[in-house]
Design brief:
The chain has 266 residues and is α+β, with helices and mostly antiparallel strands. It has helices at 2-46, 83-92, 134-141, 159-187, 219-227, and strands at residues 49-60, 64-76, 102-110, 115-127, 146-154, 193-200, 204-209, 232-246. It starts with a helix and ends in a 20-residue tail after the last strand.
Length: 266
């Protein structure tokens, strides 16, 4: 009995300490639970996003046309030394572009009669004002032993003109993306969205004559208009996919006040 009476106070004190620790642990768990739930809720809330498709288009016209001229000539072997210069002189009677004519094809052959036969293709970019009467000028430049003809007139814009148009359309899409962001933020007070991604899609191009925009021409008529010097524009369309994502609450603007700074009370 004496031993039992001695141990009883010690056991009671130990159980009391264990019970107090369990209560403290439970209180700590309960106090942390709302914060953990708030973090989960905020993570779900901050994952909201909106996806939109944007596009911009324009007609791209070139200030010049790429003119292709074919030359076929036959010279005696003794006169073939200046064949290239003579063919270039004939082409320059059609027009004298700022960048000059370039021979993009040049072939030479000999026949049994001793003549050397030359065939060449020259091209240059000419302003639209210089295209009038090219076919008649080519006929006038032709003579026995040399035939000159306009093979093609192409109004496809230059790479520089196309890139300038692309830059303008991209700027238009950037402005649309910003406008969509502002509209969404105005529609949902208390929430702030940002541009998360803006991915451009492959562009599409279509050539069309301004003369025939109301009614599309047949393929034969289209080629006839292009070859005759009628201005043919290129329709350029650029699309993009915009994703607007909500900013985490801690990263939102605080209107000039540091996010860690508490508001001052009067």
């Amino acid at each position: 009995m004496k031993l039992a009476s001695t141990l009883l106070p010690h056991l009671t004190a130990a159980r009391l300490r264990q019970g107090a620790f369990a209560l403290a642990l439970a209180a700590t768990t309960l106090s942390l639970a709302p914060a953990a739930m708030a973090q989960v809720s905020r993570a779900q809330y901050d994952d909201d996003s909106v996806t939109l498709s944007l596009s911009a288009e324009s007609w791209v016209e070139s200030a010049t046309a790429r003119v292709t001229v074919s030359i076929n000539a036959a010279f005696p072997g003794a006169e073939a030394g200046d064949a290239r210069a003579r063919m270039l002189a004939a082409v320059e009677t059609l027009a004298k572009p700022e960048d000059g004519w370039r021979f993009v094809q040049f072939n030479r052959d000999s026949d049994a009669s001793g003549l050397e036969r030359w065939s060449a293709v020259a091209e240059a970019r000419l302003p639209e004002s210089a295209l009038g009467g090219l076919a008649d000028k080519a006929t006038a430049a032709s003579k026995p032993g040399m035939q000159v003809a306009v093979a093609n007139t192409d109004f496809t814009p230059t790479p520089e003109e196309m890139e300038k148009a692309r830059a303008s359309l991209r700027a238009e899409i950037y402005a649309k993306a910003e406008k969509e962001r502002q509209t969404l933020n105005d529609a949902l007070p208390g929430r702030q969205f940002r541009v998360a991604t803006l991915n451009f899609e492959p562009e599409t191009t279509t050539r069309m004559s301004h003369v025939a925009m109301a009614a599309a021409p047949s393929a034969a008529r289209f080629n006839e208009m292009a070859d005759s010097g009628v201005s043919v524009a290129t329709h350029l369309n650029i699309g993009a996919v915009l994703v607007l994502a909500e900013e985490p609450a801690d990263d939102r603007p605080h209107h000039g006040r540091d996010k860690d700074e508490k508001p001052k009370t009067p």
